[in-house]
Amino acid sequence: MRSLGYVRISFNIFLARKVENHSGLRAVASVEIMTRLAVFSISLLYAMVLAFGAALSTPGTLQACRAEGTVASSQKKDTEEGEKEISKGDERKHGRKEQKMSIYEFTAKALDGSDISMDKYKGDVMLIVNTASECGFTPQYKGLEELHKKYSDKGLRILGFPCNQFGGQEPGDNNHIATFCQRNYGVDFQMFDKIDVNGKNAHPLFKYLTNEAPGALGLDSVKWNFTKFLVSRDGKVLKRYAPTVKPEDIAGDIEKQL
Question: What dotted CATH number matches 103-257?
Answer without folding.
Answer: 3.40.30.10
